[in-house]
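Um, can you check?
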Amino acid sequence: MIKILLVCTANICRSPMAQVVLRQKVQDAGLGAEFKIESAGTNALANGKGLDARAALVLSKRNYKINKPRVRKVATQDFDVFDLILAMDTRNMDALLGQCPPHQRTKLAYFLKFAPELGLSEVPDPYFGNLAGFERVLDLCEAGASGVIKTLVYTA
């Protein structure tokens, strides 16, 4: 089983969107039993309100099944549990590098590393923007998720 943790700041927009997309793409490919996919935030609050309503709206519009990912903060044990920990941007990668034991750092990567055709390394935070920003993030999540599957399943 391949265990993947997707990481953004508050775990209410980007990483749960990527979790929903990757989980559904894995299921659609008949690979659900081969993957464990979760999300977390480097700065998530224990009393977080859950998935942002705008994120839920754009996911629903594209027929993704939202299973209400729980808001949680990256924990020290995550570096032992997960095979791959994917950051949404440099700020979160820096936070992960600060928390990650040196011998586990090979598990860290940018999510968009798996979508090199985009020419981007970061998924922008849509929180303070409008619905179009969330739609753009969903586009990036779809590209990244497809790349993760293609890389981990079809080239392994």
In short: The CA atoms of residues 87 and 110 lie 5 Å apart. The chain has one domain: 2-154. The chain has five helices and four strands. The domain at 2-154 is CATH 3.40.50.2300 (Rossmann fold).
